[in-house]
Structure formats: C-alpha cells, structure tokens
Amino acid sequence: MKRAFRLGSTSYVYPDDILPNVRKLAPVVDDIELVLFESDDYGANLPDSSTVAELNALARDHDLTFTVHLPLDLDWRAARTFDRILRAVDATHPLDPFAYVLHLDGRALRGEPSAAVVAQWQAESGRALDRILTRVDAARLCIENLEAWSPEFFGEIVRERNLARCVDVGHFWLHNADPLPHLQEHFARTRVIHMHGINGRDHQSLAHQPRGDVTRVLDFLVRARYTGVLTLEVFGLDDFFSSKQVVMEWENDSR
After folding, report:
1. Residues with Cβ < 8 Å from 221, sequence gap 6 or more?
2. What domains does the chain contain, in order, with CATH numbers?
3. What is the tens place of the pLDDT at every residue in 203-223?
4. For 5-43, b where at least 16 C-beta lie within 10 A, e where not — what string?
5. Is 91 helix (H, G, I), strand (E, B) or coil?
6. Element (H, E) at 46
7. Which of 126, 148, 201, 203 qualifies as a FRET site for 179, CA 20 to 30 Å off?
8. Cβ count within 10 A of residue 73
C-alpha cells in the first residue's frame, strides 16, 4: 500500500538560513519544519514579510506545506516567553502552517515529581496553553513528547483542549523504548511525527537505527492510513539524505 503521509525535512539541512534551505529542499520533500528561535545569545530567525512571500511562492510551486517548530527552552513564568511564541506564530501565520509544534516546560517533572508538583505543573501549563490558543487553532497545536519526562503528564491537558500531538519516535528510541504502543494509543490526535536515528545521541541519520525499528513504525503508518507529516528531524546533508534513502528503500520494498 502506498504511503499517504507527507515526508518532511527540517529547515536546517544545508548550512545556511531558512530560505536557501527551502529553495533547495522544496523539490525533494512534501513538508519542511521551520525551526524557529529567538534568544539573547543567538538572536532570532523569524521570517520577515519578503521571506514569507517567497516561502509561499515555493509552497505553491512544489505542493509544499510547512510545520512550524516554536522556540525551545521557554520558561512559562517569564512574560517574554509568550511574546516570543506569539511573535513566531504571527510571523508564520500567512504560511497557513500544517501544524505548530510546541515543547512544554517540563523542568519541574524531572526525576520523580510528587503528585502536588504534577498538579501544579498541569495547572500552570494549561493556563500557558490557553494564552497560546488565542492565536493558534487547537487542532494544529501539536504537543511533543520529550525524552526527559513522561508524556503521560500532559495527556489530560491535551484531551481537555482538543490539542494535537507530535510523536517524536526518536525520543523513545533514545531510551531503548518501543514507540509503537504510544503511537497507537494517541494515533487519532497525531498530526506530526518526528523520526531520527540514535548514534550516541539523537537527531542522527536513520541509517544508524536498526532497520527493523524503522520498518515497524513505517508499516504501522501505512496500515493506519496516516495522512499527517513525518519529519526526518535531522540537521545536516549526510544525515538527511541517508535518512531519506532509508525511507525510499522501505517504500520500494513494500510495493
């Protein structure tokens, strides 16, 4: 059975800015994850209006969609956190993104948090998400699982607000965990999937991952008729094109 999902890359495969990457990658992928940042140390890479206009033109020419990875490592207690998120949302809104991917601030959940800590975190995270949802459709806001704490902590928050999920398969593989049970349980809400291999650390080529691990996930997605985005979340030419080759070989073998 032919895959129905859209195969994507990040916006930092080539050692260059977002727009040059999209120009080069648009012919070879279906979706590009725009990895956005805004920090005191590294500045910001939010696209301006002229960049957005060219991105839209490339999307039309190549039947391309965009997912937007909102800025990382944000502290819900800091007012400027929301300024940064909303600036990223506003800058990319004209692109009509397929999804916005968000990391929740889970620093309080590391280790073995008490029930009281978890309850407080859930209340604070819920209030933070409600602020973001004033600008983003719930169905397009995808909460991503991270490797440092259990995604079960945000399950109720996602259900209550009808949010989507970004299931990062590589974050499960990093801890030698099987991602399929989680993916199967939350498949109905899964709009984006991140996949990357492990080679000492994550976000490496899929060529480093046992082929059976990759095939099990891809076979499931085909059987389940997944129509969302599968992003090869790697950052570099060799890692991306070797990862894409793994997927292409699977696709040829499954025909």
Report:
1. 3, 5, 193, 230
2. 6-253 (3.20.20.150)
3. 999 999 999 999 999 999 999
4. bbbbbbbbbbeeebbebbeebbeebbbbbbbbbbeeeee
5. helix
6. none
7. 126
8. 10
Averaged pLDDT of the chain:
94
Residue 194 pairs with which residues in a beta bridge?
Answer: 168, 231
How does strand 6-10 pair with strand 31-35?
parallel
Candidates 224, 245, 242; CA nearest to 180 is 224
- By C-alpha distance, which of 124, 90, 94, 89 is closest to 106? 124
pTM value > 0.85:
yes
> What pLDDT sits at residue 1?
65
- The DSSP bridge partners found for residue 69 are 35, 101
The H-assigned helical ranges of the chain are 18-25, 49-62, 79-92, 115-132, 155-160, 169-173, 180-185, 211-223, 237-253
- Residues 149, 199, 99, 164, CA torsion sign: negative
